[in-house]
Amino acid sequence: MGQMTNLYFTLLCLHLVSICWSQRSNPDSERLSCDRCDRRLSCNCSYGGFTSVPMVTDRALTLDLSFNKIAVVTDDDLKSHRQLKTLSLHSNKLAVIHPSAFDSLWSLEELDLSNNQLTALKQRWFIKLGALQNLNLLDNPYRFLGSPAPFQTLLRLRRLGFGGPALEELKTEDLDGVTQLEELTVHGNILSRYEPGTLADIWPLGRVTLSLRSAFLTNTALARAVLKDVSYPETPIILKDLHLIGNESVQPLTAAADRRIRQIGFKNVSLSDEATVSFLMVFNGMPLNSFWLDDITLTGEGRWAQAKWTDQKSIDEFFLQNIVVLDVWKFVSLLELGFLLHYPRKVSVINGRVFVMPCPTSRLLVNLQYLDLSDNLLTEMTLSESLCDGHGTLKDLRVLNISGNALKSLSTINRLVAGLSKLTHLDISRNAYSSMPPTCSWPSTLRYLNISRAKLETITPCLPTTLEVLDLSNNDLKSLNLYLPALRELYLSGNKIQSLPSGWLLPNLQILTIQSNTLNMFGRSDLQSYERLQNLQAGQNKFVCSCEFVAFLQSDIKGGDVQLTDGEESYVCDSPLYLQEEPVVHVHLSVADCHRVPFVSVCCGVALFVAILLWILLWRLHVWWYLKMTWAWLKAKRNLRRRQRCREREGLESLLSFDAFVSYSEQDARWVENFLVPELEEPRDNDEESVNHQPLTLCLHKRDFLPGHWIVDNIMSAMERSRRTVFILSENFVQSDWCRYELDFSHFWLFDGNAGGEAILILLEPLSKDDIPKRFCKLRKLMSSTTYLEWPQEEEKIGEFWRSLRKALRGEEEDY
């Protein structure tokens, strides 16, 4: 029993090993596939729920695997992707990467491994990535960069991001091989050890973004060392995730000030009054010309007057976005900040919940050329206050952006900006205008106007003729019929326009964007009306894929002066129904679709010709006669069977009333009436053979057919009540339709086993089978199979003819 158990256990182990080996030898057997690739070979497999790298076409140039659940990248997962240029594994659960996982990615230029679970970085991963330019390793839990230096072989690297929630140490050899960067991002919020000079060898160095929260609070020497290594006059510095509370927290910035940097910004920072004053003192007299604040919380009351003695004349730009003032009611008037407002030429206050900028404050901005107050709470009344009701302020202003506010009146805005004599750019988009005044008075210098994302339904001559760029996208416009001679760029996407604007109204237009409208089609004549049009974006419309439009888009527009810059795939058919959602470039229309009238005309002509030819053929074959005869026969037979059923119900037998039914042509009636009837129906009293010559009863259509009845019914009834059917054959018989009916009915009757169907043929004149047309197949068959009587030309043979006929009618056998 124990041996059996051991044997069973051994077999089970072998089976499990074979399964594991089969899975190992065929790694693709359980891999899922992703087919979300566009025509540019960009494959977007993000948010796909993949737990391993899916199978994708090996021709892919871009592969996005972000926001999945991939934990491991094996050596086979990317083996066939030699053409891949961009790979993103952002926001997965990546913890293990095989040393040779990226070896085949010789063409890779961008790699994103951020926000994963990598606890260590390996130089081996990147050793074959000689073309890599962008590398993102942010927000992984590694504590240090590792040894040997992971980036040592990346000689073309230009953008680098590293660090995360666990980065503790940076040593001088960590960045070996990195000599110049366009952008450097370091997340070191808990960085505790930094060897001076670690980042100093990177030159030239473009934008630098640093997250050093802990260092700014508790280790200012470390923060100062880092800033010293990356600060150059032309290098913008952005500091993130800081709490600048007191004077001490600002001291690391002295390293940047000493290196005379010109651009500095803060993102996701809380800033006290004391820290603000300290900052202004640190940069006193320095050539700082650009100051950015994004996602800023002001914890103080704006009491910065202590720094009014500082020299901030070099500041040219203030950029403030997403500002929160904790105690807005205690925040002092900006009038106390006049020492800061006299000098800048560019001021941006975006999404700061600003509802008014007092006129006295506006008057302090004496050098202002650029003002951005977008995404705030301005109304017509508060804007009037901010612009001092359009009287004598902001005289040098060239660019004004008041988009995304609570403005509703274009006429009021026109009145307020009319006095800005140097204004060239005006952005009043994302407001709630519903109408446009008939006339307006704009600054003569205005060249750029943005009124997109409003509620405009019509356009009036209010628009200035000096415009070179006009954006009216995302309104409710149905047409644009306005003469704008200087316009070079026109944006009309997201409206309800059904046709391209007239080109003669826009003689200098070079760029036209009219996507997502109700445009059905356009053609060569539409584009020829534009004298200088170069770029056209008209995709995502409801195109009717007519032959002219498809031919124009597939061939005529290519190589012309106008280029479709939004890509051929955005031009999709909306109708006809069978082509819906089909890209126009893939549509193939038939000759019938493209030349419907000529095609239908030709088809009708051919059909008519075939019909005539078929009619002639059927006529020559006498098909019509056969059909007519068959229909008459079927109808008569149905009536006959109905009469037979009636007699059966009444208990009556079928009675034979005639010895023979005589079928003859009307032209042969004289012979029938003068010879046949007297001979067979009249008795011969003085004839010595009168005993053998009993009179017979004949059925003649002239005499015995019932008036008022259908003639075919009469024929059928006569045959039914007759023992025999006698056909008087002649040329006249052959030409008679009714004689042919009677002949065929007799033949049908014979096949049905009825007596009246037995035919007796009498030839009044010589008539051979070959003389009878082929369409009389039954007559030809009867003449071939049935003995017939010929009317003798010699008078001495007439008696014998009558004797033979009587015997035939009585059913006596005789050769005749």
Write the layout of secondary structure elements.
Blueprint: H1 2-25, E1 42-44, E2 62-64, E3 72-73, E4 86-88, E5 96-97, E6 110-112, H2 123-126, E7 134-136, E8 159-163, E9 169-170, E10 181-187, E11 193-194, E12 205-211, H3 213-218, H4 220-230, E13 237-244, H5 253-258, E14 263-271, H6 273-282, E15 290-298, E16 317-325, H7 338-341, E17 346-350, H8 359-364, E18 370-372, H9 380-386, E19 399-401, H10 410-417, E20 425-427, E21 448-450, E22 469-471, E23 489-491, E24 511-513, H11 524-528, E25 535-537, E26 543-544, H12 547-556, E27 563-564, E28 573-575, H13 591-594, H14 596-620, H15 623-650, E29 658-663, H16 669-681, E30 698-699, H17 701-704, H18 711-720, E31 722-729, H19 731-734, H20 737-751, E32 759-763, H21 777-785, E33 789-790, H22 798-810
Parallel strand pairs: 1-2, 2-4, 3-5, 4-6, 6-7, 7-8, 8-10, 9-11, 10-12, 12-13, 13-14, 14-15, 15-16, 16-17, 17-18, 18-19, 19-20, 20-21, 21-22, 22-23, 23-24, 24-25, 25-27, 26-28, 29-30, 29-31, 31-32, 32-33
Domain TIR: 656-809
InterPro entries: Cys-rich_flank_reg_C, Leu-rich_rpt, Leu-rich_rpt_typical-subtyp, LRR_dom_sf, TIR_dom, Toll-like_receptor, Toll_tir_struct_dom_sf
Subcellular location: Membrane
